[in-house]
Amino acid sequence: MSQANQDQKYFDLHISGIGYLNRVREVQVKRGQPFLAVDVSALHGDAEDVQYTRFDCRVSGSEAQEVIQLLLPEIQAKKKVLVSFKLGDLYTDTFVYDKGEKAGQTGFSLKARLLIIHWAKVDGKHVLPVASDAHASDAQDAATDEPLTGDILPAAPAKQHAGRSSLDELVY
């Protein structure tokens, strides 16, 4: 590693929250390797009037990639897949609508990198554990069929999900 690389400093901007996973896909690029992408509909606001913000995410963390692959069948089956997440490198991307009522108008998309998935629920059932007690505070979700409060798994020795081929091996 050169001296110039060692002297570089970075300021990280991370977004943490809970949200639903949708639209998993492999993105083909003209140059370079294809990558895994997913939409995260993040929850925010008053529990009685939940708001959603959609992030179009490149799945960057190696563990996040593995978790998304495990959750893929549930997401494709349109099940409610709720996760606690961490995003990084937020930016906006503008585009022009091709068709529909907004044809010709400029739109924008919030883009980010999905770095970490701390825990996951599929249709209200835990399939991945909470990584630590710090993430239990993320458990305020009025939009699910089952409230998360008090339903979070304790930070116990987590089963490793490396090398697993399905969620059946992960369900607690």
Would you kindly provide a written description of the structure presented here, covering whatever features stand out?
The protein is mainly β. It has a single domain (12-150, 163-169), classed as OB fold (Dihydrolipoamide Acetyltransferase, E2P) (Beta Barrel). The protein contains 2 helices and 6 strands; from the N terminus they run H-E-E-E-H-E-E-E. A hairpin with a 7-residue loop joins strand 1 (14-27) and strand 2 (35-44). The radius of gyration is 18 Å and the shape is globular. Mean pLDDT is 79; it is low at 130-163.
List the topology elements.
Elements: H1 3-7, E1 14-27, E2 35-44, E3 51-59, H2 62-76, E4 81-96, E5 106-122, E6 125-128
Parallel strand pairs: 3-5
Antiparallel strand pairs: 1-2, 1-4, 2-3, 4-5, 5-6
Quick rundown:
The protein is mainly β and 172 residues long.
Biggest beta-sheet profile: 5 strands, mixed, barrel
State the fourth-level CATH superfamily. Answer: Nucleic acid-binding proteins
How many helical elements? 2
Distance between the termini: 43 Å
- Main-sheet strand order equals 1-2-3-5-4
Features:
OB fold (Dihydrolipoamide Acetyltransferase, E2P), mainly beta, 172 residues, five-stranded mixed β-barrel
